Amino acid sequence: MEFTIKQTNIAKGVAICLMFAHHLYAFKDRLLIGNNYIPLIPFINVELYIGYFGNICISMFLFLSGYGMFLGYLHSEKKLLYYSINKLKSFYLKYWLYFLIFVPIGIFFFPKVTFWHSNQVRYSPDIKIFLENFVGWSSTYNSEWWFVWNFIISLLFLFPIYTILVDKNISFLFFLSILLWYFGSRINPYGHLGFIYWQISFALGIICAKLNFFSSYVIKEFDKSKWIVSFVGVLLCYMVRTKLEQKTYDFLIVPFFIYFSCRAVKILNLSKLMAYLGKYSFPLWLTHSFFCYYYFQNIIYSPKLSPLIFILLTTMSLLSVLGIELLGSYFIKVKNLFLRNVLSSKP
């Protein structure tokens, strides 16, 4: 398989769908009284199992980030540290755009929203809390933004170090990341030091990019296999993860799950849809939990039937993202036009 930008977007599309399923179906304790879903199959809650498996999306996004950044750096002419800083800048600009739209909505229009199992108000206008969330140090405004700080560390520190190491000794980088993961498994993976635990998926993405994993002999042999192998591969990834200790060994499963799921998506003729969702996966991650948890949970769960809830969340999140992206593009054009006029008017 030639792992192009389109394939990356397809994989991100699969990951964002798994994230939606994870947050919709796996956390009944986060639902307000009266909000629930009706399983598609009455006698077995398949959605719950998919929701639990959906947590693999974290390792998928980290793997794809490491993979894409390494190849992007190879094709760029920028110095390594400058490349990382530039990526961090792009990340923050996008994050701040959505932050400055959705957080004030919470502060002004949803001041009574509280933390789960608590009476403490979530959207505090306190300047210290606001700034801590703004830079990504805290995620009290949106608990699903805990990943922001981990990703910042990956962009600014881990990528330059791991890129240097992968060129010098791939084995050393692999064993170093394994060692960090081992010690990281003893700390809170969702805290400020959680990047020590999650970094192994990011490192493996860099290593697989270096080794051209998706063009390797093993993958080429799978490419020759019949269509049924793709679905069996996806099922095996699910079964192996279920047998193991949930997310602990995701980094071993993710490269193969990405490959098999991309093939399965192609067979089902869903490539365009997944690639489209994957293109907006970052802003979809930033926005969807405001709809399914904090602001409009009653609306999202109103259809009751699980597939309709999923479709409604995807539709509302995507429409909001498209609107904000269009607005952002408009302001960029206005800014550029203004700067050109100012510069051209100078004597």
Quick take:
The chain has 15 helices and no strands.
Written account of the structure:
By secondary structure, the chain is an all-alpha fold. It has one domain (5-345). It is built from 15 helices and no strands. It is globular and about 55 Å long.
**Rg for CA atoms:** 21 Å
Shape: globular
pLDDT < 50 stretches? none
What count of domains describes the coordinates? 1
Strand/helix succession = HHHHHHHHHHHHHHH
Essential attributes:
single chain, 347 residues, mainly alpha
Describe the secondary-structure layout:
Blueprint: H1 5-25, H2 46-53, H3 57-75, H4 80-109, H5 127-134, H6 147-168, H7 170-184, H8 195-210, H9 217-223, H10 227-243, H11 250-267, H12 271-279, H13 281-294, H14 297-300, H15 306-345
Helix pairs in contact: 1-2, 1-3, 1-11, 1-12, 1-13, 1-15, 3-8, 4-6, 4-13, 6-7, 6-8, 7-8, 8-11, 10-11, 13-15
